[in-house]
Amino acid sequence: MDKRFTPLSQIEQIQKRQYVLEMIQQNPDWPINIVAKFIRTELHLTLSDMAKITKISLQTLQNLEKPDANPTLETMYKLLNAFGLKLLIVKK
């Protein structure tokens, strides 16, 4: 938890997680770097916290949040799966 923020109660944490999931579902066109940063900042996680939760290296997470990110499918899977999301590839 980012120490710049006061800790949330369990109910507030659940509400915040639901909000994050709803926003991501409402914006399926967001690139993965926006999704990654949105999850981390909205849940008040440090990069270190996010690395522990997702089991993705700190360096990879830093790169993932950059606009020119080019993550592997495995990295995207780890990120999304850790927060109860799935990666869906759809033919247009």
TrEMBL record:
Pfam family, one: HTH_3
Spans traversing the lipid bilayer: none
Keyword hit for DNA-binding: yes
Keywords attached to this entry: DNA-binding
Top-level taxon of origin: Bacteria
Keyword DNA-binding recorded: yes
Record-linked SMART domains: HTH_XRE
Gene Ontology molecular function: DNA binding
InterPro entries named in the record: Cro/C1-type_HTH, Lambda_DNA-bd_dom_sf
Ranges where the HTH cro/C1-type domain occurs: 37-90
Protein name: DNA-binding transcriptional regulator, XRE-family HTH domain
Species lineage: Bacteria, Pseudomonadati, Pseudomonadota, Gammaproteobacteria, Moraxellales
